[in-house]
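INSTRUCTION: Work out how this chain folds

Token vocabulary: learned, describes local backbone geometry

RECORD BEGINS BELOW THIS LINE
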Amino acid sequence: MMKKPLAVLAFYAAFAATAFAQSAPFDMSPERPAGPPPATMGPVPPSAPSAPTTALPPTPQVPVRPPPAASPAGAPPTQQIAPSSVPSVTPSASTPPMAAPRSAQAAPEPITTSVDQRRRYILPFTELSLSGEMDQRQWTIYMTPQQADAARALTVAYQNAVVVAPESSSLEIAINNVPLEQRSIASPDAEGNLSIAIPPGLLQGGANVVTLGVKQRHRTDCTIESTYDLWTDINPSGTFITLNADVASRFETIEDIQAIGAGSDGLTTIDIVAPGMSNPVMASSLLKLSQALALRTQMPNQEIVFHANVPQARKAGSLLVLAGTSREIAAVTNTVPAEVLAGPYAGFESNMINGASALVVGGPTPQATQAAIASLVASVEPPDQSSRSFLSTRNWHTPDAPLVLGDRRLSLSSLGVTSTEFSGRRFRTDFTIGVPANFYAAAYGEATLLLDAAYAAEVLPGSHIDVYVNGNIASTVPISNRGGGIFRHLPINVTLRHFVPGANTVTIEAVLQTQADETCLPGTAASATPRFALFDTSEFHMPNFARIGRAPDLAATSGVAQPYRSAKQPVAIFLERIDPDLLSSAATLMGRLAVAAGQPVDVDLVGSIAGVGDRDAIFIGTLPQIQPALAAQFNIASASQTAWGEGRQSAPAAEQTDQLFEDWRQRVDGGLWQGQISSFEEWMRRNFDISADTLRFLPGAEEIYAPPANVSFMLAQGLSPGGEGVWTLATAPATDTLRSGMKAMTEMKRWSGLSGRIATYDAGADKVESIVAKQQTFFTTGPFTFSNWRLIAANWLSSNTLSYSLFFIGFLSLLGFVTFLLLRGLGRKP
């Protein structure tokens, strides 16, 4: 019974002796000096002397580094935070002593991991399908120097359509613009795997550009329609770089966080073990830590999960973070880095978990832990007074999207498009353009694509060049001349109606018809003679556009995190309660907003709705538990607080609903006339882009929304009661659906499509729907200029046709009346 107390006393005595014997100050420089890293804390050998002390000595103003001890062979050094970015913290005399390891009689059991250390997965997408005759994706992966040196081969798992001709179709891969060996696409019946050797030295520590593309031809058909039947699906779980060393999850410096990458499912997971998360003050700091880590990874699909204990199951593409005081870290791991005992510390430790590295963020006191978190947050904040010039898209679309704030011309070469010759029937390429949150030109504006291209003499009239914005057709230019031609800065007007705040994908597609394709003789091999060429000297010209902020607008929030990015005071965060599930949901959302903003969002965790006031705020909780007044602020039906989620059933198929509607329209009186009205409205919308909303004089009132049973998660946005702040609500019927819905909604393929005042997610159908805001509040985002307000008026009047007509008639009437008065005054009297 006396062994454990004696061992504990010996432990404290040994630590005190080594601490006071060390004369050098605690070094928090970016790199640890050469030599083995400090040993983790463990049980003291029986021969260690004991001392009658029961608490650690007070930490001095300048933290003292304990002398380094031997570490396991091959353990990497630990990253330190620079002293300029970490304030020193002196704990008070009442600071409780750090808890001793759980077992003082035997060495603690090491935490194991099942992560495959010799596979580095590279796809940042949950799914990837390359379609058509020509398609490719280009993105950037980060690797540690050890991973780059250990890379030996690239494995790709794929399956293609049965109509893809293997003899004339190929999978093309390049790393850092160096092409690897081409392989034939020939796996229609089952998933196939191909392995391609990576030349030594091709990969480098840091950023590496990966290009994955296909060239596909149809087996028998030569029509334009047949090109839509060509596809090759890439499986993320079978696409990876093979390493010859166990370094896939080993990291040394803070910069290595961006090398976490994605897992076998295309997702990135940040597991934060924080035993003190229930403390509201610590929970607020943990939300800031979540944003800093999300900004470090910059991955398009990531989830942040909080744990009270170290998770036993781990996977590739995950980062394990131990956050808390030295006592809390020791309680969940049985070990603690010596640096955490001395002061604020943030760095990787490789001897705490076998086979993987853990990021340790902590200190001897809660204040020191918060200082360590603050240093990480400060390291990802932009310089003061710096303007944002691009949106970070390189981890899913290289290069980064330039942020266009007004009149600007960009060459396609600067947007990542290269000059290309094409011999098929349907050519496609794309690039990304970023626009700010206060973009307001969807009803009147046009950009211009100045096209440099050429087409061969065999291309027939009836061919055309199309431009798409975010998947919506924006312009079409027919090819009407025979005999070939060259376009030199051919202006193609591109409507701005499909642009949204944030990153926008612009696609150029050329549909080429030839006599040979119409004949399509059996056994005819695909021609290698180019039919079309696109030159990277083409330019995209964005004109000046109206700029004014609007709310509610989930598109601005999802695109660039407005209004939270530029909030003048900390954004209030209200959680229904502080537990791992709700804190995980909040952290996942805030991480996504930080990536969209390009910087951390300053947050303040409040304990009650009354503490929010009239500022910008985010509310997270289940709908049954929020106050009715808060639900009413978002125009959500009060009955939904009890009815939503009850008796969940799948929604009827769209075809069944349409048929049922038609049956009832024929039964009711006036059905024929109303049906004609509906058909007329559809015809007006399709041909003249005029709808009932367009013909309104003033915006109508917002309708009360009741989420249907098939909806499992919802984001809603509205104004604060005083109208000074913008509030956003993330809610679901239950806690489990709240967390799963948040994870699904923040994935890039869904997040980028959010708009309006409400966005709902149907997990059963994997579908996101948005409800437009009928009433939006406008707020200025810059100094007054006549040109900007003229553009604002032009867009508003274009959106409200009836108002424009009435204003126009009124202006003409006023002009006629003034003219009448002038002529009457100038005329002669009889």
The longest strand covers residues 485-495. The mean pLDDT is 83. The first helix runs from residue 3 to 21.
